[in-house]
Amino acid sequence: MSAIVTPAPKRLRRSLGHNLRIAGGVIVSIVFLFPIYWMVLTSFKDQVDIFTSPPTFFFKPTLDAYIEYMTRADIVPRLINTIIVATGSGLLSIVVGTMAGYALARIRLRGAATIGVLILLSRGVPPIALAVPMFLVARNLGLTDKHITLILAYSTFLVPYVMWLMRSFFLSLPRELEESAMIDGCSRYGAFFKIIVPISIPGLLSTLIFSMILAWEELLFALVLTNRHASTIPVAIAGIAGDTVNGANWAALTAVGTITVVPVVIFALLVQKWLIKGLADGATKG
Amino acid sequence: MTSEKAQAGPNAAPRRRRRIGDLFVRWSFMAPSIVLLIALLAYPIFYTIDISFSRFDIATFGAGEWVGWENYREVMSDYRFWDSLEVTLIYLVIALPLQVVLGFGIAFLINAEWKGRGLVRALFIIPMVVAPVVAGGMWRMILDPLWGIMNYWLGFIGIGPLDWFGDPTLAMASIIIIDTWRWTPFIVLIATAALLALPKDVFEAARIDGANWWSTLWSVAVPLLVPVIAATFVIRWLGAVKMFDIVLAATYGGPGKATNVVNLFIYEEAFRSLRFAESAAMAVIVLILTMVLTGLFLRGSRKLEELF
Between A254 and which of A43, A49, A219, B262 could a Cys-Cys bridge form, CB atoms 3.0 to 4.6 Å apart? Predict the structure, then answer.
């Protein structure tokens, strides 16, 4: 009799544990998403609703903060700058970094292993060690406050990043692909551009998008290398957040913050499957 | 291309030419990034070293006369530099383990099989694409001592009101909270993939052998996960040593210098005080420290990988 009875509570206990896990996961997700929800919510409040105690969840929504900051405070030119710089550095890095990643994964090169380690180590270079000389050189060459300067500066961390991700991506492809192509008379370039690149499009696209996100949110180089014409959105946000003279302008902060975050979130969710795979591979297949 | 010449001349020369041609093709994949990284990564580092041994010349805005170790001596005796290193160390020692443990714990929770799993996992991407400077600004609002929603909620359980950015310890805590909020999801994603890759049969065997939940975790899951945990730690370390944006937006190093991480301190010294030579010396010290520790961590994680 006991043999029949025992499995039941065990299954019950397991399903209780399982349900607790699910509940825990949902609660943690809510905790992690709440700050963003609160920011978006606050961006639709007027001053009276922002500075009220207790904090309110129900109010008459207004677009005032958006209208004010999209027409003033040169947010729009900065948005355009950010798009130019993120696209430019993303494209440059994906082309250069993918070729190098392929070389590291597939082509026997003397010293390639050393280069690989150096590149991995380069990800530990503190950007401030680059920002000081870059600022001085750019200033002496008259290149400060130009898009191209920022694009090149961003490639210092994006190229190694792309290289590393694409290297592990190429390692996961079967070797026969380009071997058979090269036996059929394809050159190395032919095998790479006609066979490897087309089947890597999803991986390339997610790496490109993630590189662009990294460029989109970069602050230090943008602070140092630009001041007006090429200045980006993170600089504007740092300015608003750090404005201690006028006190925190939360309406501006949340409105500009929401504008900055929403497009990136949409992009990230579009490629989420690849993003997760790419990140995980990049981390585990080092 | 080489076939006609192969017929004409002796065999060795074209073959060598072909081999050189192939070598050229092979290196051409690597060359663009090498050129780019030498020009934009290696050269600036050497220029930083150059400046760090020179008197900075404001007139030419470049390295002036050679002064040897003078800048280094000055920096090493600057207590503010040591303070900023200490602040950075405290942040790293608390935030890194916290984020790795939380990340793997949360990954375990959200990996429970149910129909919402895919959605929950996708939602976890959102915090990690919020620009750190936005994260800093937004949490500054949430943690505001007067109007922030955090203190309002803490009031319900009898805590506070806490002066998050006015008290040195709490300011460090808030930096760590913000950083953990921003970066834990990144670890969750890596950990999720690692957990899914775990072999199922080992757990089945452990269950049949009558291992309880706790011993399964410690004797089966953790040893299998050690290499990934180590790799995750290294990756997170590489990001965390660059800590700048969140501090700049949330506390700007304050109150006093309680959250003045070394990157922010060097930034201020260079671009506010225009002490470029001293900043270069500090940047070189931080660079060397980071490289040495990164090398150690990489070797450590390789060792762990071999052990398990």
Answer: A43
